[in-house]
Every structure is written in structure tokens, then in C-alpha cells.
Amino acid sequence: MSARQPDPVAPRLVAPALAVIAVLVVAVAALVVAAPRASAATLAPVPSFGTNPGNLAMYEYVPDGLTEGAPLVVLLHGCTQDAAAYHRGSGWAEQADASGFALVYAEQKAANNASRCFNWFEPGDVARGSGEARSIASMVEHAVSRYGLDAGRVHVSGLSAGGAMTAELLAAYPDLFAGGGVVAGVPVGCASGMLDAFTCMNPGKTQTPQQWGDRVRAKLPDGADLPRVAVWHGTSDSTVAPANGRAAVSQWVNAWGLPTSPDATEGLPGATTAEYYGGGAEDASVASFTVAGMGHGTPVDPSSGCGTAGAYFLDTVCSAGYTARFWGIGGVGGGAPTESPTEAPTEGPTEAPTGECVAASNYAHVSQGRAERRLGYTYALGSGDPLGLWNTAVRTSLTETSPGHWKLTPGAC
User: Fold this and answer.
1) pLDDT confidence of 365, banded at 50, 70, 90?
2) What is the phi/psi pair of residue 166, to 5°?
3) Cβ atoms 183, 91 nearer than 8 A
4) What span, in angstroms and rounded, lies between the C-alpha atoms of 185 and 159?
5) d(CA 62, CA 177)
6) What is the CB-side half-sphere exposure of residue 293 using CA atoms within 13 A?
7) Do 79 and 6 touch, CB atoms closer than 8 A?
8) Which of 39, 115, 135, 160 is flagged as catalytic?
9) Which single residue of 35, 270, 358, 395 could bond 317 by disulfide (Cβ 3.0 to 4.6 Å)?
10) Which phi and psi (to 5°) does residue 201 adopt?
11) Buried b vs exposed e over 129-160: b needs ≥16 C-beta within 10 Å?
12) CA atoms of 272 and 283, how far apart (whole Å)
């Protein structure tokens, strides 16, 4: 997500006047998407969309027969990627067809960043009214006006560098975006330059939830409502450390003024644990989706018709479907939840071990998804408790106090 980090790709949409050329459209659609869809729409460039100080390119995908007042989802690819690749692989095209909403893809140019990363670490590109942030806002305004979309149901999501830019947009333009999806990204305001960005990515920066929340509050326009935010991260991401996912969740939970413990948890396919703050799966203010054992990429589920597996498109769970469900603009989840949402406990001792206890080497804890490695040291997933050196000689006891949340409990097992 920094200047040298890869990410996913995107779609192309055909103008309504071209939809009559059925044979040609079907052929093009077969090349653009891996999973067959009934729609004849394709991803198409938009040469002019208004003020563009960030020098970005715009692509759009509008399903055939889209009704007036439909939602809009803006998508941001990662480094080394483009709009077409993210459209092909991420699963959002299938969601748009199934649930009836439009897609807009912002695409970075090599002239702006040699690795085609969005410049999420440059203050001039993430501030309201300037640079790349303003260019993306122009794309939204253009699409909403051209297709009669619902300006109150505009959402944005992105991977890695695109995920970091998504977070910045949510803080700079909460009046434009009702919700966001930060996939393998970093918290708002983490970096102020390219060199700083690498530290943000790995190992990540340490701030209190209040300090992270202050970064959001510093960017918010006066009187703006907060957007609803979904954060996705894999526990084995070595490009953007999983600590960033936890920090992003704590940042938005604090910005919303919510308790630090989730109100509900849910088990999803692909070893995914969802935690909801300020409500449940469909009305929470903040959602945290943690995919055990997943590396750096966008979670997809090709077996359910959600995206295409490949580099930075990881076959685990349909993140597009569950994010759309969380936003309230769709219901395709790439498979039924493995567990029903449950109310999180609201009282009782928080330090007492309540689940499985595992005594093993720090190497085993990491390889089996109970801990993560950062610069040769080991930290428990969920709690972040330091466990010492990452090797086979150091043994520690961890207790799972909630799904996917492990705590150091010496001598407990």
C-alpha cells in the first residue's frame, strides 16, 4: 500500500447506448469477469468527470436496468494494480449485478506514483478539497448526477494502499460517504510522508484508541456525521501488519464513542470472525472482520461466485458480499454464516480464561493462527500481549477469551 506495494484490480462498464450490441458485449464481458453473469454491462472509462487535481483515471460499471436512486460503491485498487484487475477479481461486480448498484473505480497513474499506489501518505492528496481525494469526490458527484443515484447511499472500499486511502476519504468526506470498507489498510492519519508510510505498514505505529480517534476528529468537517466502517485484515499479513487492522478498529470505535468490547460476534466462512460495535451485523457502526491465516489481499470466495482467486485475491470469504450486507445495500454473503450472531457478555471478570488454553512454542502459536510475528517478536492475536522471541524454544500459554482473541495466561495450561 506504500509506493512499492501491490494490490487488486478493477472492471469496465459500457454506456447504455452500446448495450444493444449484444454479441459483442457478451464476448467482452466473458473476458472481463471470471464468473459468468447475466448482465451485458462492462467496465468503461470515463474520460471527463469534473475537477481532477489528483490526475486520476475513472472507470464505471453500471448493471443493465439499474433503477434510479440505486446505491454507488467506489473502489480503490492497491499498488501495481489497476481498475480492471480489481473489477475482475474482487467480487464487487457480482455484487453489483445481484443487488443492483453502480460501481466507480478510481485508477492511479504511474506519473503520480511509480508503483501505482494511491498517495495515502501525502497530506496534499488526502485533505478535503485537494489532490487525489478531491478527484475521487468528483467521480462520485459525476456518477450520482449522470445516473440519478442515491447520494445518501454512496460507499467506498479499497485494498492496501486503496484501503488506506479509503480510510482517509471517510474522515475527509463523511458527508459524501455513508460507509467504507478498509481492506488490509492502516488507520487514518498514520503517515505524513513516504518514509513514514513504511513504518505504518510494518510493524505499525502504537497509539492509544483516544489518540487514533483524535486523528479522525481532526479531519472531520464541522457537524458531519460519522460513516459506518468495516475493517478487514488477515492474521498472517506480512505486508501490512495485522496490528493496523486492530488499530483501525479501535480508531473508529473511539471516534464513534463506543465501548471497546463488541456488542456481537459472528463466525463466517473462511475462518473469519466478525465483531460488531454499536449494534449487530446489519446496524453496527463499526465492524471488524478478521480472517485467520490469511495473508495480504482481498478476501474472495470463487466457489460462491464471488471474485476470482489470484495474486492479492485470496480464496477465503466473500468480503464484498459481507461488506455490502453490513452497509445495507445487498445480501449476498458467499455462504451462510457458520454461527449465528451472539450477544457479547456485558459483565463478569474480563481477565478470567473462558475458552481453549494452548501451551506451545511461539513458533507454533504463529503458524497455527493464535499469534503474529513482528520483527522477530511474537504477539497474541486480539489482545496484542507480547510473548517474547519468535522461535521454537520460547513456550507460552494462550487462552482464547473470545473467538480469535487470544490472551497470555502464564501457567493456565
Assistant:
1) confident
2) -55, -45
3) no
4) 7
5) 19
6) 11
7) yes
8) 160
9) 270
10) -65, -45
11) ebbbbbbbbbbbbbbbeebebbbebbbbbbbb
12) 19
| Bridge partners for 228 per DSSP | 179
Distance CA 408, CA 411 (A): 10
As a whole-number percent, the residues of the chain with pLDDT over 70 amount to: 82
Q: Are 115 and 109 in contact (CB under 8 A)?
A: no
CB 250 within 8 A of CB 212: yes
pLDDT in tens, 153-186: 999 999 999 999 999 999 999 999 999 999 999 9
pLDDT tens-place string over residues 2-51: 443 444 333 333 333 333 333 333 333 333 333 344 446 999 999 999 99
Q: Which DSSP symbol is given to 66? A: P
Distance CA 267, CA 212 (A): 27
Q: What does the alpha-carbon distance between residue 381 and residue 246 come to, in Å, rounded to a whole number? A: 9
Per-residue pLDDT, 392: 67
Give mean pLDDT, residues 312-330: 96
The single residue listed with the C-alpha cell 460507499 is 155
Side-chain half-sphere CA neighbours of 292 within 13 A: 22
Beta bridge partner(s), residue 300: 315
Residue 307 φ then ψ, to 5°: 80, -175
CA angle, 107 then 13 then 62, to 5°: 110
CA dihedral 237, 243, 249, 254 (to 10 degrees): -170
The rounded distance, in Å, linking the Cα atoms of 157 and 136 is 12
Instruction: Flag whether pLDDT at 126 surpasses 60.
Output: yes
E-strand ranges in 128-252 read 154-159, 179-183, 228-234
Contact by Cβ (8 Å): 208, 214: no
- pLDDT score, position 297: 97
CA distance 401 to 380: 12
Phi-psi region of 92 (alpha: psi -120 to 50; beta: other; left: phi over 0): alpha
Per the annotation, the verdict on 238 as an active-site residue is: no
C-alpha cell at 363: 513458533
* DSSP tag of 282: T
Three-state secondary-structure class, residue 183: strand
Q: Which three cell numbers stand for residue 63?
A: 448493471
CA distances from 19 to 24, 29, 65, 101, 355 (A): 9, 12, 10, 17, 56
